[in-house]
Fold this sequence. Notes:
Layout: E1 2-6, H1 11-22, E2 29-34, H2 38-47, E3 51-53, E4 65-68, H3 76-85, E5 90-93, H4 100-110, E6 115-118, H5 125-131, E7 138-146, H6 157-170, E8 179-183, E9 186-193, E10 196-203, E11 213-219, E12 223-228, H7 236-248, H8 255-266
Parallel strand pairs: 1-2, 1-4, 2-3, 4-5, 5-6, 7-10
Antiparallel strand pairs: 7-11, 8-9, 9-10, 11-12
GO molecular function, one term: nucleotide binding
Domain Gfo/Idh/MocA-like oxidoreductase N-terminal: 1-112
Organism: Kribbella jiaozuonensis
Amino acid sequence: MRIALVGTENSHADHIVRLLNVDRIADARIAALVGDDEKTRKLAAAGGITEVVPTSGELIGSVDALIITNRDGALHREHAVPFLEAGVPVWVDKPLAAGGADARAILDAAGDTLVTSYSAVRWVADADAIAAADVGEVQTVTVTGPADPDSEYSGIFFYGIHIADLAQRLAPGEPGPVEVERVGSTIVARYRSNGVLVTLQFVKPTDEGRVPFHAAVVGRTGLASQAIQLDEDYVVPGLKVFLQMLETGQRPLDDATMLAPITVLEQL
């Protein structure tokens, strides 16, 4: 299977090219890259990729799927929509978009074409562990992590999607109105999802470091608290979810689930 990738400035692109073209973890490979810079050329050389084009649209009709990894979610719509309208499956690596209008436009363009989007954090082993914790009827969910509202990559959307998407996995459903409070350099957001009180804590990193991702779930009969560790292969589970979508023809997440974290972040 021939897959194109756009967004080579993102470290996720390096992981994906290594996993598919060097480690060969699946019967699929990155056959084309989009870009016209030194980073793209180096990545092409590392992955044995001979097709490098300046614009993504040139690849419609010559690849079987597209992966979008641009750091800035504001760029995702322009890459995704033409491929989806042409019937080419697309994985939009986090975030789906940097706003609700663009996110809905991507999903509307898909129709019956396969499309998915999520944070890599949603699928890592520690996320699986806390999602499976036996706590009884869930009452509250709290997810904490680093996020910079002043990021050049559409602000809170760049890293905040990790926090919001993990919360959506732990407390699925349509988010209610979001209450926002600033505590020092942290944005605290609260909303309800199917009766569960969800608290998100977006802590702005410093030059010295950043807080790790963490999740806590309180239920009627127990509680679970879990640091969410990201090892060097943290992209693997999410990549496998995408490849499984291509193999089975089934989307791993429905439109409402993909839209929910974007809706939350848009209110911050």
